[in-house]
Amino acid sequence: MAPAITLAAETELSAANTGFMLICSALVMLMTPALAFFYGGMVRVKSTLNMLMMSFISLGIVTVLWVLYGFSMAFGTDTGSIVGWNSDWVGLSNIGLTELWDGYTIPVFVFLVFQLMFAVLTPALISGALADRVKFTAWALFIALWATIVYFPVAHWVWGAGGWAFELGVIDFAGGTAVHINAGAAALGVILVIGKRVGFKKDPMRPHSLPLVMLGAGLLWFGWFGFNAGSWLGNDDGVGALMFVNTQVATGAAVLGWLAYEKIRHGAFTTLGAASGAVSGLVAITPAGGAVSPLGAIAVGVVAGVLCAMAVGLKYRFGYDDSLDVVGVHLVGGILGSLLVGFFATGKGQSDVEGLFYGGGLDQFWKQCAGVFGVLAYSLIVSAALAFVLHKTIGMRVPEDDEVAGIDQAEHAETAYDFSGAGGGSARTTATPGASAAAPAESKKVDA
């Protein structure tokens, strides 16, 4: 993603590139409600609306913060390789309509709105780890603090001119470190502070609607083309097209890898596995897709599909309650995709950097390690600290009775499904734990 990836300077606005990037921005925006559907189908009936709202509220909070100061912090003039600042961008009040993003043929407004959609999506990813048990007010405050203290500076590290990862030469085409590792590490930090759901490893916590999960996964896959291909900020030299192709290739390969592991390990091909495999492939190719060939993308996808499928079972072994596998998919997938750049980079894509398998040695691999573990450590520690402060002050968790009865009713005074007019039940029954449909995929995962 620019400005870490630079093209020859141009002086004229390109209507084609501008239109392309506006479409890509809209596609990335779609990913947040798509994520809401994906997560919303994976929880029990009594938590559906809360899961949808935990994603949706990010569209409001982060949008306002981005206008006020977030864009300036992420992409303003560098200070100490840690954060940016540009007072002219505060409130977006001193940006000309046709003022171009430096070195590109698109307006600053187009670049900033594209980046805004990334900033919105990233905290929403964290929410899947916290399903069923977090106060909505505490979550909203956490988003505001986390975006300010974690996401905006990390985006500057990775993509802002002068950021330490930028200067080191870490390759992250569209967000393996800044988005997925950042969100996955944050999720782990928060759940270690707030603890497990009531009944974790004892009660069945099956997805209530696998069709919703598949719908969300399909919309995420669709939106991800804007997320990835758009990160080249133009369409002039074929690199964006390479990223588009590799996004499709790696995702398909990851679906096959996850399902193959699932069949061998559990004896069935599940729809939840197919959807989760697709997301793991999308995550892994995000940092790598501009640097690898389509054959390399197959390798990245298969590795991500298999290893992420294995990783989701670690929560049962180690006892951390990652409700919807944010750690297993986004953290692990982001790490894999980022590190595999050091092996599969061909030197014929976004840059001339070559990985180990193409004669480049391990130099790029060590740079990737620095980016991966620098972001992971910072996000994990700071996110845990933020959660701890909120937990000890306003409280992060809903009361146990509300969690058991249903967080939707307690926090939003609504239920996802009203059967009172159907003659087969009442609105009250939709909030009971036993109302969820059985899902073999989840029962297999509980035994992992």
UniProtKB/TrEMBL annotation:
The keyword Transport applies. Pfam families: Ammonium_transp. Residues 418-448 are annotated as: Disordered. The chain crosses the membrane at residues 20-39, 51-71, 104-126, 138-159, 179-198, 210-227, 239-261, 268-289, 295-314, 326-345, 365-390. It is found in: Cell membrane. Keywords: Ammonia transport, Cell membrane, Membrane, Transmembrane, Transmembrane helix, Transport. GO terms for molecular function: ammonium channel activity. PANTHER family: AMMONIUM TRANSPORTER MEP2. Involved in the uptake of ammonium/ammonia (NH(4)(+)/NH(3)). This is Ammonium transporter. The lineage of its organism: Bacteria, Bacillati, Actinomycetota, Actinomycetes, Kitasatosporales.
